[in-house]
């Protein structure tokens, strides 16, 4: 297993151990990953294989999860070997991608050139630092976007406009925040959740929020689990945006009982 957060040329040659290797690539949240295969030599015999995951996978959990992924399931995870070589230029759907391989023949392997390119409309992203401020937007689209932070966090909502603004203009009245977000015209909402692993479907939905409030929320949400996520569900009927900040919990706040 290897994590790479810088672009550049990389190559892998098997040592003959047949171990499963994973190269976890991460760019900035507002970037995509472009992977160009400059060489590819992996025999299918004895199960030699390279897989490109459009996201990250750990312990069988995928980010983004299959439902929130913009691509159909067969394109989220693709395998290659022998004459079936990867397309020369591959572009991920978010700031993370994973190359897994198991190569049995010593000396076989592959080379890639990795570039980070601007994502004009970031949706799903993994965040690598434990402190920050971030904005999720749907740009009026029907899609679900998640920021996954790989740390326990205390999350404070700074500004929320979810399930309210039906056009690209601001509404004067402040509705405030609500926890009942199912309406006839959709169930646009934010979910602030924590858990072990990446799969947002496996996390308890304790904090569901929608409404309009342009001042920071007084209360903070403590997520004492290994990973923290803010997920925005959008029906496509509203221009949703949420800005939140997050800081690591103090020791007394670290309570994993709800994970
Ligand atoms: C977004 O998530 C909601 C519930 O979590 C689901 O009902 C809806 O189909 C999802 N939308 C898309 C575009 O995947």
From TrEMBL:
Residues 129-247 form the Corticotropin-releasing factor binding protein C-terminal domain. It is found in: Secreted. PANTHER family: CORTICOTROPIN-RELEASING FACTOR-BINDING PROTEIN (PTHR10278). The keyword DNA repair does not apply. This is Corticotropin-releasing factor-binding protein. Residues 2-115 form the Corticotropin-releasing factor binding protein N-terminal domain. The keyword tRNA processing does not apply. Binds CRF and inactivates it. May prevent inappropriate pituitary-adrenal stimulation in pregnancy. Keywords: Disulfide bond, Glycoprotein, Secreted, Signal. Pfam families: CRF-BP_C, CRF-BP_N. Belongs to the CRF-binding protein family. InterPro entries: CRF-bd, CRF-BP_C, CRF-BP_N, Sperma_CUB_dom_sf. It comes from Tegillarca granosa.
């Amino acid at each position: 297993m290897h994590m790479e957060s810088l672009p550049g040329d990389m190559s892998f040659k098997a040592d003959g151990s047949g171990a499963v290797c994973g190269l976890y690539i991460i760019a900035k949240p507002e970037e995509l990953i472009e992977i160009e295969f400059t060489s590819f030599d992996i025999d299918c015999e004895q199960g030699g294989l390279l897989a490109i995951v459009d996201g990250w996978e750990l312990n069988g959990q995928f980010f983004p999860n299959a439902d929130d992924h913009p691509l159909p399931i067969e394109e989220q995870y693709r395998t290659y070997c022998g004459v079936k070589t990867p397309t020369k230029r591959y572009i991920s759907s978010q700031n993370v991608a994973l190359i897994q391989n198991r190569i049995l023949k010593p000396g076989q392997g592959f080379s890639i050139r990795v570039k980070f390119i601007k994502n004009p409309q970031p949706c799903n992203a993994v965040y690598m630092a434990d402190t920050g401020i971030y904005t999720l937007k749907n740009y009026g689209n029907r899609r679900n976007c998640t920021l996954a932070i790989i740390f326990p966090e205390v999350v404070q909502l700074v500004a929320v406009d979810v399930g309210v603004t039906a056009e690209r203009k601001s509404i004067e009245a402040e509705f405030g925040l609500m926890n009942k977000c199912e309406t006839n015209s959709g169930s646009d909402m934010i979910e602030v959740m924590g858990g072990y692993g990446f799969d947002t479907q496996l996390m308890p939905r304790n904090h569901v929020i929608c409404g309009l409030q342009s001042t920071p929320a007084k209360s903070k949400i403590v997520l004492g689990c290994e990973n923290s996520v803010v997920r925005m569900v959008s029906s496509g009927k509203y221009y949703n945006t949420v800005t939140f900040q997050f800081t690591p919990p103090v020791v007394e706040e670290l309570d994993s009982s709800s994970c």
